[in-house]
Amino acid sequence: MILAEKQVEWLGVAQSVMEIEAQAIEAAAKHLDGNLTRAVEIILSHSGKVVVSGIGKSGHVAQKIAATLCSTGTPAVFLHAAEAVHGDLGVYTPGDPTILVSKSGSSEELVRLTPILRQFRSALIAIVGNLESHLAHVADVVLDARVQREADPLGIVPTASTVVALALGDALAAALMVARQFTEQDFVRFHPAGQLGRNLYLHVGDVMHRLQEIAWVEPETPLREVVIAMTRFPLGAACVLDQFNHLIGLITDGDVRRALQKFDDIRPLRAKDVMTPNPIRVTPEVTLGRAAEIMENRPSQISVLPVVDNESGTCLGLIRLHDIYLGAR
């Protein structure tokens, strides 16, 4: 009983944290003003990179902001505020804008950097939680990252403040995407690996199993022979084709199991008796991401899709959800 009460308490704390953080982001969104557009203009006006710097938890946020900028068309690097004065300032080229991330706006490592950065003719964009701080006063642009309180039970752990700073970085990156007219094709160029890039860059035709690699049968094929074909090509389904290789049905492992449950004697059954007629299908030109949506965004998910020629309707093969996410053939 005591454990159950504790579990309720823990869940309540977790929900409160997320609610406080969500409210903090909502408040920060309302504080957005011309400073955000000015930051976009500063970054757009410079042909080089952006340097993003911070220390402690704000340093981790700065790293993520730099990574997001890079992946969305704005070259950026992270500069550790403490290491900057020990040689890492060599990353700068004249005019590189700097984004400084700090909750207090008075972190010693960042404060002592500002006069040095002026020597590099660096415009300063500050994401700070204290608008009366040193960084807020010396920066060219200030993005308001104030929070009413931190979200943890003690109200002292960087939680709401880091989430708001991160959200402001995302907001800046998104505005820059629009300003640069950054497209899905641009995103693919920067993400050739990983599932994101795979979903956007590859098409069904690149990973599907060809007709000679799958189980396919005719409508009058006995169910026993269907099972043998599906055992020979264990991809989870068999395509049912007419004499012109047009797709007329699909038999999945589930269809076979349901037939065994429904009929005491399966010997008279043919493929046409257990198949799903006119099944959902895709063409080779469809992206992997779209194919995954077709299979997953439905009341009952499916794990395999027939692939047909867009013009003739001829069956070309099969693609599995497994092929999309793991690239296994």
TrEMBL record:
Pfam families according to UniProt: CBS, SIS
SIS domain boundaries: 39-182
Feature type site, description Catalytically relevant: 57, 109, 150, 191
GO molecular function per UniProt: arabinose-5-phosphate isomerase activity; carbohydrate derivative binding; metal ion binding
TM region(s), chain numbering: none
InterPro entries xrefs: CBS_dom (IPR000644), CBS_dom_sf (IPR046342), GutQ/KpsF_isomerases (IPR050986), KdsD/KpsF-type (IPR004800), SIS_dom (IPR001347), SIS_dom_sf (IPR046348), SIS_Kpsf (IPR035474)
Keyword line: CBS domain, Metal-binding, Repeat, Zinc
Keyword Metal-binding: yes
Residue ranges of every copy of the CBS domain listed in the record: 208-266, 275-329
UniProt binding sites for Zn(2+): 80
One Gene Ontology biological process: carbohydrate derivative metabolic process
NCBIfam families for the chain: kpsF
Protein family according to the UniProt entry: Belongs to the SIS family. GutQ/KpsF subfamily.
Listed name of the protein: KpsF/GutQ family protein
The species this protein was found in: Thermanaerothrix daxensis
